[in-house]
Design brief:
- With 446 residues, this protein is of the alpha/beta class.
- Helix content is 40%, strand content 13%.
- Strands 2-8-7-6-5 form a five-stranded mixed sheet, sandwiched between helices. Strands 9-12-11 form a three-stranded antiparallel sheet.
- Strand 5 (174-177), helix 7 (190-203) and strand 6 form a beta-alpha-beta unit.
- Helix 1 (17-26) runs antiparallel to helix 14 (358-370) and helix 3 runs parallel beside helix 11 (292-305).
Amino acid sequence: MRSYLSKMVSSTRLPPREERETAIEAAGYNVFNLDAETVYIDLLTDSGTGTMSDEQWAALFRGDESYAGSSSFRAFEEAVESVMGFEHVVPAHQGRGAENVLYGTLFEDGDVVPNNTHFDTTRAHVANAGANPVDCPVEDAMDPDAPGDFKGNLDLDCVRALAEEHGTESIPAIVLTITNNSAAGQPVSVENTREASALADELDVPLVVDACRFAENAHFVKQREPEFADASVAEIAREQLSYADAVVMSAKKDGITNIGGFVAVRDPDLFERVKQRAILYEGFVTYGGMAGRDLEALAVGLREAVEDEYVAQRVGQTQTLGEELAAAGVPIYQPVGGHAVYLDAEKMVPEVPKSQFPGQALVVELYRQGGVRAVELGSFAFPGTDRPELVRLALPRRTYHREHIDHVVETAATVLEATDSVPGYEIVAEPPNEELRHFSAELKPV
């Protein structure tokens, strides 16, 4: 069993209720606009918010800051090949930088891009390239109460229907997100990945895996796919990624770093095209917007991420939060995923109509009641889509302890007891790019 010793600590405080009320109003009832010092427990995202190990901190001191050909890049390159099986890799400053590099290379006007479920920045990058992002989740993916081991899977028939409707020439790639963040962090089976790879070959297009949480996905495969019951997380991860032609990754998740991302590909010709776009947007191809020290820490983090005991502890903490919330009567998406627990806002604040963003109403109440910052992943974050009104509680890696879990549960239970008084919200200011409005829009209570 894996546990951790604290070698450095930082303090946090629960601001008084009056201070929280003032802060959320000043933020336009959008928690992205809150100052972090006004937040007690921050579950906004698990992206770049985790705690690095002593080995990663030691690696920072080895950072080679050479502009080109640094030894830190070589260490990172070797880690990607060892852990993920890709020889060609281009670093980027974070996941959306990697998405810009790869998707800007692959996609163009008029393309149709199927994904098991697009996340917000993925959807925006596909649309920015002029393509149409289409979600192809399996039937029960959007049902918070439906059972299922692999509700994150790709609906292959949906992809075939798109190819028939639009023509195979309109589909430049198939994208598979593991785990499926927009479907409550649900895992994708290796069998489904194999089938997606075969379909991609049939359509003569690459299979792209968004591998942000590839290690967590491999842990679920070990637990739920009988073929891999005796395999290690590292072995499963290599096997699953072996079916991909390209990988795009935010290293701020299962790279266990505070910054960074990358694109890895198999085709040398695509590699050359990706490199040229990366030079334009991210920097030279051996640093890609990252400091050498961060590349060194990422090289260590990738290897730590596939250690069985680490992943079991990581996913186990999320499972504990889900179990405690369910025991308190809080409606959650089942089964619980690896990086976050998703609250069912429509059940939790039933008096708020969908037109008034029940998920965002719940987010505001969690902050107001307990200083807990979460994120809405429903109609506010994904306008124009028919997704359930979910609120994500994303746990940073190796950061919070049991007392923090208890406080989150207590806060959610308190909100549940007073749902009749929760108001709905309307948008009063939003950016031109609707796909990303939840990052900066301002609202007011109805």
